[in-house]
Design brief:
mainly alpha, elongated
Length: about 150
């Protein structure tokens, strides 16, 4: 025990020139540290919420895929879908040919041709029956789903 008594006797104090300013500086630093910790906790909460929302979205997408499969099974099988795909391919080819012609012939001729094609497309769309409209919408939805996956 004699060593501890010597240590207590040898204690000394250091004088501080401006103790109030140093105390203020320490408190401000502590305040900033607490603010940074609060921000970090908010970020953690946001990340957790983001992960939760993403998992909800994935579950919703899975459920939608299941429902789309059920609808496909429930709908009657027709050749209309293949005809629509062939029509889409043909339209894509025509559009590619139109773009080539536009580059070769110049802007004026291409604009006139484009207007004619727009009129033709509008006429084709008017001729679609209700069933064809539904099939085309179904095809669009399937393509969107495939892009999401």
């Amino acid at each position: 025990m004699p060593k501890k008594e010597k240590e207590k006797e040898e204690s000394f104090y250091v004088g501080i020139d401006d103790p109030i300013e140093i105390r203020r500086s320490i408190l401000e630093s502590s305040k900033e540290a607490v603010q940074y910790l609060q921000r970090a906790e908010r970020f953690k909460a946001l990340r957790a919420e983001k992960v939760e929302q993403i998992s909800k979205l994935k579950n919703s997408i899975k459920e939608l895929k299941k429902l789309v499969r059920k609808v496909k099974v429930a709908l009657p099988k027709t050749k209309l879908r293949t005809m629509l795909h062939e029509r889409e391919k043909r339209l894509k080819r025509e559009e590619a040919d139109r773009k080539k012609a536009e580059l070769e012939a110049g802007r004026r001729k291409a604009v006139v041709k484009e207007e004619k094609e727009v009129v033709e497309r509008v006429e084709e769309k008017k001729e679609m029956t209700e069933l064809e409209k539904l099939e085309s919408e179904l095809g669009e939805i399937e393509s969107r789903l495939s892009r999401l996956s």
